[in-house]
Specification:
The chain has 241 residues and is of the alpha/beta class. The protein folds into two domains: 92 residues, no CATH class; 149 residues, Leucine-rich repeat, LRR (right-handed beta-alpha superhelix) (Alpha-Beta Horseshoe), CATH 3.80.10. Helix content is 28%, strand content 9%. The chain has a seven-stranded mixed beta sheet with strand order 1-2-3-4-5-6-7, with no helix packed on it. The termini are far apart. The relative contact order is 0.08.
Length: 241
């Protein structure tokens, strides 16, 4: 059985569940794969004819907010193995799941390397997954307002990352690997337990915004609010001592 046939079966199962959110996911998957869409329509043209008349595929620009609930575990969707292969095809690049009461970084997000922006702010997430670097196209990651304690070294392998927002967590240490983010312009660390910054930040020539207010380091240097900075400025260098 080839991949298109497997994805066709998975998509049909989603539609036949007659769960509105599942149908939306099926439409999104087909939107990203013309061959799959044709295969599914041919499978039972009469039944889908009415569905496609009612659904304008162009209006689905983002996942529904309930997606995190639907995909909370693998067993929630039949043929999830096939869905794993289909998720990278979904033409969505910005994902906003803020204020969704999410406790664990959703597994299915890591199956979508096409994502460029992820907003998971104001949830209850405690861990950033070690394989976060699978999201190699990520330019913005917002995890403000969670309960994160550590940052894995793998964050430093997000080579396209420009904006990293980690305000209002319980982070104590910033790993040296952050210094590998050559395109990073914003680093937001307000209201954490940070007492020092890694010297590797000196290599971030693109960095111009740093927030360390309400951290032990910020209080030590009397930092109020975010700071427009430059790695060559004496103030910034002083923070790294």
């Amino acid at each position: 059985m080839d991949n298109i046939e497997k994805e066709k079966l998975a998509t049909i199962r989603l539609i036949e569940s007659w769960n509105n959110d599942n149908i939306i996911i099926a439409l999104e998957i087909m939107k990203g794969n013309r061959q799959l869409k044709t295969a599914v329509k041919q499978h039972y043209e009469p039944m889908l004819k009415a569905l496609f008349k009612k659904a304008d595929l162009d209006v689905f620009q983002n996942f529904p907010q309930k997606l995190s609930e639907i995909l909370r575990s693998y067993s929630d969707i039949p043929y999830y193995e096939c869905l794993d292969r289909a998720l990278p095809l979904v033409p969505i690049y910005r994902l906003n799941l803020s204020h969704s009461k999410i406790e664990v970084f959703p597994w299915w997000i890591l199956k979508m390397p096409q994502l460029t922006e992820i907003n998971l702010s104001n949830n209850e997430i405690t861990l950033i997954p070690d394989n976060i670097d699978e999201l190699y196209n990520l330019e913005m990651l917002n995890l403000t307002g969670n309960n994160i304690h550590t940052i894995p070294d793998s964050v430093g392998r997000l080579s396209k990352l420009e904006k990293l927002q980690l305000d209002f967590n319980n982070i104590e240490i910033i790993p040296e690997s952050i210094g590998n983010l050559s395109k990073l312009t914003w680093l937001c660390l307000e209201a954490n337990k940070i007492e020092s910054l890694p010297k590797s930040l000196m290599g971030l020539s693109s960095l111009y915004w740093l927030s360390i207010e309400k951290t032990p380091l910020g209080e030590k240097h009397n930092v109020l609010g975010g700071t427009y900075t430059n790695v060559n400025e004496s103030f910034f260098q002083n923070l790294l001592k």
